[in-house]
Specification:
The protein is an alpha/beta fold and about 220 residues long. About 45% of the residues lie in helices and about 10% in strands. Helix 9 links the parallel strand 5 and strand 6.
């Protein structure tokens, strides 16, 4: 049924319903440290923490405080999967299609997430975190590395992304990119993604469309 050879997922805003809380966190950071960047919390979506800090908060003391606040924030975070995620992963497994997570988060956060969601890690043949890459999205490095670890050409992968930077990264890798309009409106994604869906409940239909393109 599905002819895509692998599926690569962003995490926050795609698999887990956490982007709203991150938006609040970074909006609070912006209010405290005054970046002067309009819609700062949206601008940085998809970037690694190291890239955010080096770009917008060069002061070492400020970086240290933000790292500590973020670590405390993530330690208390509740991870809720979007509706549609587990059924989609079951279909992929039944069709022997490997999946990977490509996230700008670190391994400590991922360990906490997997501990909170027993069995969830087993759905993924690879997990790419910020420790695995040197360049943030929109650079395609993370998606290219994930495809390599799965043994699949990136052009035979489907990518699910909610951020503009993430969609650009997926496209730059050569993958078929599904924009998920959870944290951005569809009009922000429709010109750069191959298709746009409103929720992960529409994900399987999106993969069928990707498979038809592959034919």
């Amino acid at each position: 049924m599905i002819k895509i050879n692998a599926v690569l997922f962003d995490l926050d805003g795609v698999l887990t319903d956490t982007e709203g809380t991150y938006t609040q966190f970074w909006s609070d950071v912006d209010r405290r440290y005054h970046t002067g960047i309009d819609n700062f919390a949206l601008v940085i979506k998809g970037n690694t923490l190291d890239n955010i800090l080096s770009t917008y908060f060069p002061d070492p003391d400020t970086q240290r405080l933000i790292r500590a606040d973020l670590a405390d924030f993530e330690a208390k975070m509740h991870y809720q999967l979007f509706d549609g995620v587990l059924p989609l992963l079951d279909v992929l497994k039944c069709n022997n299609i490997p999946a990977a997570i490509v996230t700008s988060s670190n391994r400590v956060k991922m360990d906490g997430l997997f501990a909170q969601l027993p069995g969830f890690r087993e759905n993924f043949a690879a997990v790419i975190t910020d420790e695995d890459i040197s360049r943030s999205k929109p650079d395609p490095e993370g998606y290219i590395l994930a495809a390599k670890r799965l043994g699949v050409d990136p052009t035979l992968c489907a990518v699910f992304e909610d951020s503009v930077a993430g969609v650009m990264a997926g496209k730059a890798s050569g993958a078929f990119v599904v924009g998920v309009a959870t944290t951005n409106t569809p009009d922000k994604l429709c010109d750069i993604a191959d298709i746009v869906i409103g929720s992960m409940g529409e994900a399987l239909a999106a993969l069928r469309r990707a498979a038809r393109r592959a034919d």
